[in-house]
Design goal:
The complex is a heterodimer of chains A (410) and B (146). Chain A contains 11 helices and 26 strands. Chain A is an alpha/beta fold and 410 residues long. The longest helix of chain A has 15 residues. Chain B has a domain of 83 residues: Alpha-Beta Plaits (2-Layer Sandwich), CATH 3.30.70.20. Classes of the chains: A alpha/beta (410), B alpha+beta (146).
Chain lengths: 410, 146
């Protein structure tokens, strides 16, 4: 019998539990989490504020999940250190828990750059956790003027979620475009226009230089008056527990394809890690939910003595705002071909005879067929990408390829 | 486990599978009342044009990437069948982004729905199969189990 310990209670942690249990049905699993909540779909907090889900439905696994998996939970507790020699983790309360295999799934936290006067702002919020969403919700009124610092995925999803509950929303970002991590200039312009048509105002290439309680003095010289400030500038991986004991850490905890850290017996998964991005062929923090689950699941299998590699990880996002949906994946390098229609835009990036990446706004049916071309690095000799200009379809494949794809158990 | 397979050489492109699917999952007893003059949202879709057509529905994969990718934890596998809890889905379409078969499409409300093999609806067995006039869609056992 082994002793498994998991630090964190997000998607990667759940993947780890399910990975362990696919190999080892009996050994003890202990999960320690600072958050005092049953596991919830973290990206659902904006949908919660929008009224598209509620506290019950947003649970990522059923109420009996931990019991059914013989997983003991320690909620509201912080792990302060790991002793890799003694193989123990020490809690803030002083208690030490032994482990045979440990998974660090500590996620990330908001990055807040130093901004003068920020301490004078009373109603300021991050937007990462359910507790963030619940405290923001308490502050929202029909008359609230909201300033969101950060036009990335988190800031804009927050804007959509609270739009109908407040008076106005202004979003600022140092970048010259919205969603700069997933969209290029032209595509970002399309999305920005759509967001503006839905009542969101933008101040791009601009950020708050200083604050008073209700005013932001922008770098551009403008002044924004607000009632509620939301900080969504960026995130930082929670790497300290591994870094403190000499583990390899860059922007995230370095893991190999088996999700092992540089320290024997210690695995890591999810947003706290820096794994291998196969679309760019280099290490990168891929802070997306599917990656967190798949890393956790593979880590769990390996912790339990099985063998699983998490390869072919690529950045990919599916996200919509006010009815406009977009999907992106891979790297935007190589030769670009595009198709513009009244319903949106598609941009494909091809290099070395494989699809490297795409940006698709509007017509998103069956896009997973294209994502799999990137993930599996499918040579394009027998793939007709021109077909996908109209719509992603299995017609891009030859009849023979389709027969193989659909003919058997997969 | 039995799954739905399509023989594209035999597919006539008649789209009857789509109508039978939409009706079987409508919860209604009268087909014309369920479908007439309505845009349908079936869980199987005929792709292609002209001489090449074929129907695509969920493969009920052994290791489904949609389950691992769902941000709401709404998709699960029960007795080999990949199912979605529509009350939990928020319509983010991440499952559409990852399904290599292009087998998932949202319903009329923008919330995802998927082929669950008709095992729990009025048909009880895949309606696309029973209604296919050329037996291009079959429901059978192929290959090894997990």
């Amino acid at each position: 019998m082994k002793n498994y310990v998991i630090i964190g209670n997000g998607t990667a942690a759940i993947g780890t539990i399910e990975g362990i249990r696919s190999v080892d049905k009996d050994s003890k699993i202990t999960l320690i989490s600072e958050e005092n909540h049953h596991v919830y779909g973290r990206p659902l907090i904006s949908y919660y504020l929008e009224g598209k889900t509620d506290l019950t439905r947003m649970k990522y696994r059923p109420d009996d999940f931990y019991d059914k998996n013989f997983c003991e939970t320690v909620f509201g507790e912080k792990v302060v250190s790991i002793d890799a020699n003694a193989k123990t983790v020490t809690l803030k309360s002083g208690k030490a828990l032994p482990y045979d295999a440990l998974c660090v799934a500590t996620g990330s936290r908001p990055f807040v750059p130093p901004m003068e006067g920020l301490d004078k702002v009373e109603k300021k919020f991050g937007f990462m956790t359910l507790d963030d969403a619940l405290s923001l919700e308490k502050a929202l009124t029909k008359d609230s003027r909201v300033l969101i610092v950060g036009a990335g995925l988190i800031g804009l999803k927050c804007a959509e979620g609270i739009k109908d509950r407040v008076k106005s929303i202004t979003v600022c970002d140092l970048a010259d475009r919205v969603l700069s991590s997933i969209l290029d200039n032209d595509c970002a312009a399309i999305v920005q226009k759509h967001l503006e048509a839905n009542g969101i105002s933008f101040l791009l290439k601009d950020t708050a230089a200083s604050f008073t309680e209700n005013e932001a003095y922008m770098k551009s010289g403008k002044t924004v008056t607000f009632d509620i400030l939301i900080l969504a500038v960026g995130v930082r991986a929670n790497t300290e527990l591994v870094k403190d004991i000499g583990g390899s850490v860059n922007r995230g905890i370095i893991v190999n394809e088996k999700l092992e850290t540089s320290i024997p017996g210690i695995y890591a998964a999810g947003d706290c890690t820096e794994g291998y991005d196969s679309s760019i062929g280099a290490g990168r923090v891929l802070a997306i939910l599917p990656n967190a689950y798949m890393q956790g699941h593979a880590a769990g299998i390996n912790m339990a003595g099985g063998s699983k590699e998490h390869a072919n990880a690529i950045p990919m996002n599916s996200i919509g705002f006010f009815g406009l949906h977009m999907m992106t994946a891979g790297a935007y390098e190589g030769e670009m071909t595009e198709e513009i229609s009244e319903n949106g835009i598609k941009r494909f990036f091809v290099k070395d005879n494989v699809l490297k990446g795409f940006i698709i706004i509007g017509e998103t049916d069956r896009v997973g067929i294209l994502t799999s071309l990137i993930r599996d690095k499918v040579p394009l000799d027998d793939v007709d990408l021109n077909v996908a200009k109209t719509a992603a379809s299995n017609m891009i494949f030859s009849q023979e390829a389709r027969r193989k794809k659909f003919g058997g158990v997969v | 486990m039995k799954r739905v397979y399509v023989n594209e050489e035999w597919c006539l492109g008649c789209h009857l599978c789509e109508y039978n699917c939409a009706f079987a999952n409508s919860g209604l007893k009268d087909m014309s009342f369920a479908l007439k003059d309505k845009k349908i949202y079936p869980r199987i879709h005929v792709e292609g044009a002209d001489k090449i057509t074929f129907a695509v529905s969920c493969r009920h994969c052994e290791d489904p990437i949609c389950i691992k990718s769902c941000i709401a934890g709404a998709i699960s596998k029960q007795n080999g069948v990949v199912k979605i809890d529509r009350s939990k889905c928020v319509g983010c379409l991440t499952c559409v982004l990852v399904c290599p078969y292009g087998a998932l499409m949202p319903g009329e409300d923008g919330i995802m729905q998927k082929c669950e093999l008709c095992l729990e609806n009025s048909c009880g067995t895949p309606a696309c199969v029973t209604g296919c006039p050329n037996k291009a869609i079959v429901y059978e056992e192929r290959g090894a189990e997990e």
